[in-house]
Amino acid sequence: MKKTLSWLIPVAVGLLLALGIRFLWLVPINVSGASMEPNLKNNQHVVAVKTAPVKRYSVIVFDASGVDANAAPKENYVKRVIGLPGDSIRYSKTGKLYVNGKYQAQNYISKYQQQAGTVASYKNGFNLVSAARQNDWSNKWSLAIGNNRINKVPKNCYFVLGDHRSVSEDSRVYGFVPKSKLVGVVKVGFWKSNHKIINNYQN
Asked: What are the Peptidase S26 domain coordinates in residue numbering (predicted)?
């Protein structure tokens, strides 16, 4: 009996710790749709780390209910953070992205992918008031928008985009994502070919 307990107790403790880590620290996520291609595929399994800091270009999971009018209750979206709280976001007439006046190379996707869906947005008067589906965004966030089409990210919010710009519905459609909706930061294994693009991309 003592022999059995000597190995059973550590195994049980280890199992409880593993379960605790999974539900308190890590969240298993199944990527749904093509909005993060080519870097994350439809039905790809990843984890979201609840305690990881959100940086520019972090790939995050957030609860989209109340953000996107089309989202189901507790439906999770996976997108890339482009703008942090206080950042100014601007697209040029040619579809180039600027954050705080600095051009963003976005080398994790091709030049075509960078501009897909953004030039059209600009020609249609791109800003987060005209693009968002909710009619109360302008009052809710008091967006600073002028002739240069600059969108300032409010406090405790993020501006997110999908890597597959031509199909992604993101902050260009539903506006900013409140920090309170954050589930975690996506991480993939270091052995994956896309680990730098997902885990630690820098412009």
From this structure: 6-191
